[in-house]
Amino acid sequence: MPRNVLITAGAGHIGQELLPLLQSLEETRVILPTTNASRLKASLPPHSEPQSNPATFIAEEGSLTDPAWFQGLLEKYEVETVFLCLTTEDELFTTLNCLDCMARSKTVKHLIYLSACYDFASTECAQWILRNCSSGHVLVKILTEQKLVYGNLPFSWSVIRPTLFFINDLRSKHSMIENSVYDEPLSEQGVSRVAPSDIALAIKNVIIDESGKWNGRHISIGSKKVYKGSEIADIWSKALGKRIEMYPATEEGFRRFETEMGSKKNSAWGRDMRLMVELFAKEPFGMTEKEYLEQVELLGKEPEDYEAWVQKTVTTANW
Question: Which domains are seen in the chain, by residue range?
Fold first, then answer.
């Protein structure tokens, strides 16, 4: 029987890295819910090597915000494994509805949930975040992880906890070129950085694992080093051959960041993103040594190097 896997956000940063990895799996059906099936189909990777029973990609047009449609999709394809990646303003409703649909479908055996690199399942950590942060797309992960731990759900789960994506830096590309400014206020507390390709590899390795080793586990993905804001500015300065200044992690810097992020989407999202970076200014955003070693075990290698990525990006991209 084929392996039936449903992947959300197939056209996103992680999805673009994950789908080529799943292409190598034989006797696998990859179900891709999307609001634009034709666009997603056009972006699917071509088969690079001959396979006797290559993975099949099936794009289904609809919305994850429609529980009946999502549950019907799970049942139609008898989906066994779901990768759930959601970052939207209706993330809370959609996430909880998806969990309920998975439980009602009676087909799903395992969930891989994309969270963030905080110990949201810990009462102590959850209380600290609730005291120090009001970012909706952060706080929803507390409730979701607590639901996974205490919800008596009829499927097993693994939680992937990435740190701050390398590619977030590309949001500052224009500002660095035109104004010599990295326009997201990252503080001197420091943040770990992660390549979406490593997140994708972790997800793929959990999908193919048949031992159950990663069931009920929370796996952080990212660099061992936490990079201070000034260090990130120095890395980009060296790569670009000119001085790059970091937006200050001050009221003025946070206000400017909120305004700019709000202009790209809406004011509510701008405020939510501001609240997230203000949280990073309260303590380092990274992982323990134990968590780092667990990551290496899951990936089967060391994670990608952030500084090497910056240099390669400047060298190969049209800067």
Answer: 3-163+194-221+286-304 (3.40.50.720)
